[in-house]
Amino acid sequence: MNVESTKLIYIGMDDTDNHESRGTGRLARDLAAQLMVDFPVLGVTRHQLLVDPRVPYTSHNSSAALCLEGDERTDLQALFERVKAFMLADFIDGSDPGLCVRREPVPASLRSFGQRAKSELVKQSEARSLAAAEQALLDGLGGTQDGVIGALAAVGLAAGGEDGRYLLVGTTRELSGLQPVSAILAAGITGVYTMDGSPVSEGAVLAEKMRPARRGSRPVLYVEWDQDYWRPVKLD
Length: 236
Hints:
Elements: E1 6-14, H1 24-35, E2 41-48, E3 62-71, H2 76-89, E4 98-103, H3 108-119, H4 124-133, E5 137-140, H5 147-160, E6 165-168, E7 178-180, H6 181-186, E8 191-194, E9 204-206, E10 213-215, E11 218-226, E12 229-233
Parallel strand pairs: 8-11
Antiparallel strand pairs: 1-3, 1-4, 2-3, 2-6, 4-5, 7-9, 10-11, 11-12
Helix pairs in contact: 3-5, 4-5
């Protein structure tokens, strides 16, 4: 692929589950596995939204985003319909799923909407109006369709590059036990740091449930020292 023509594509998903079912993050990872046949999938990220009694969420009110490599020739409508069919085939009764697809550059208004959805109560009508104005493909796939809010927010937050944590990136989920920093980096992490920002280049890292943060539009792992190894820290 011509690097100069490469355009990142973001897919946002939200509210695809109920209290007994698999979560949206799992569905997003399953979707990534399917799309990898045709697209380089750079990662799947989780984004925390507002936790408030007025918001009807399943567990933690988080949404998910996939980041793909495409180009100007990528048919976004066809991709949207493909993902929509995938989600509808795994529709869970009681869920209110939403789907959003947008190619870079993602406008500041969508990034701002994502930030607002983390701290403010936003309405479905606002999400739909904004998506239409900014040419983001957005649709509700059942129930109240309130998932369109989180789906649009996920795209804005993922595109902003400074929010959320990776549920899937490189081969990090294949690692287990204590691993040297070199193995962590080889698996797809761009840097390992302490919470004060100091780089870590030596020692062993506990690889179980490693969820690097999305910072600078890259997967970065933050760690804390625990007796004789580095323990990963989960950040939103």
